[in-house]
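User: Continuing from earlier, I have the next pair ready.

Assistant: Great, send them over.

User: Here they are, in order.

Assistant: Folding the first of the pair now:
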Amino acid sequence: MNLSIIIESLPTLLNATLMTIFLAVISIIIALFLGFFTALARISKIKPLEAIARAYVSIIRGTPLLVQVFVIYYGLPQINVELDPIPSGILALSLNAGAYLSESFRAAILSVDKGQMEAAVSLGMTYGQGLRRIILPQSLRIAIPTLSNTFIILIKDTSLISVITVTELLQMSSLLIAKTFEPLTIYLLAAAIYWVLITVLTTILDKMEKRTSQHVTL
């Protein structure tokens, strides 16, 4: 381990970490909306809508994220759809995380007793009101641990976006290695930054989960 290399490289890697955080935050926000509406489509009685949602989830979950990144960045230009590296990376991460989140949302919604929806309807609520006021608050608490885990995985998955030259933490590590010829030092430093980032994020999400559990009651 070269201490001088660590001191010189740390500010650059921390700056690249901001890009990693940016990619993860934007992607998870998009994925939450995508996953939620996909979950609603999966439980919908509208067959074409349900079929489209099922196909989307099946394709995304059945193919590696890296392949999805290549299809979006290198494949779409063949049909005249060209995206810069950062939008391509965000799109790939969002589609991937959205598919997994949709299954978490769907499982959480279906885990709520069907009798509660029937009771809501009998009280004069519409299906939408019952879903919004009765089912979704309860399913939220059930889904939160999975949502937290997905966000943590997404942070680590941003490293795959380095293959399309997005200068996030791993890509910057590779650039520094080409300059310093210290792969062990740089990669261990990058790993330490990932570990600290995930640890802090896990702590924050755990506190959010406990707070939500206190305010959402069955």
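And the other member of the pair:
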Amino acid sequence: MHESMMWLFSMCLILGSVVGLLAGLLGIGGGLLVVPALVWLLPQAGIAPSMLMHIALATSLASIVMTSMASARNHFRLGNVDFSVVKVLAPGIIVGGLSGSVVAELVPAQYLPKVFAVIVLLLALQMMLSLRVTHARPLPSALASAAGGCVIGLLSSLAGIGGGSLTVPYLSYFGVEMRRAIGSASLVGFLIAVSGMIGFIFAGVGSADLPAYSVGYVYLPALVGIAATSMITTRYGAALVTRLPTATLKKMFAILLLIISIKMFMS
């Protein structure tokens, strides 16, 4: 078991470096890659199938806590965070993020990958189409914004992602300037990841099949491996933005997501 854990840790170091690079380059949360990668890696480290999706989602959210915190801090320094927007979304985001772990517990384990696959499929289509808003609309009322935040938080927590792929189009639709939408989404992503992670930790406490070195459903060897390298390579990804055709890369990444979602739905 010790050897399989060390193998998993090594694989997660590689995974983290790729995730960090793509996150910096494409401005996407790493969960879209981390969850399917862990679904493939964890069984080879002896993780029980009944625990598989819960551990993948929880560990992904825990890794996003660290990367989104660094991203949010950078955007705050650049003045890209609109706190009036974050303030109206935050209550719903936190409730939705916590609710994701509750819903994940209620959904039978064999259906969770399919739920993830559908969410990723929709995100991939949105990324491929890159719909742009031509008519700005004012932000809805505080109650409607909280409801919107709840939906974003719930779907993001269920998919183990930071939610930038949902939050940026939502804010853009309501006329928030793109730079501020991305900056605000980074802070929103941190709130989603923290609330989702806490929910999955409490949901997993006392579960019989949990592996050693777990905190609730968060599997520490995988988390440390992913975080150790992703936080380093994110800055290199950001530096490559001006040198590579980002729009083309986003479409290629969306095609990869389509393949992943179809594979997970069919399996």
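Worth noting for the second one:
Residues 173 and 188 are 16 Å apart (CA to CA). Residues 1-266 form one domain.
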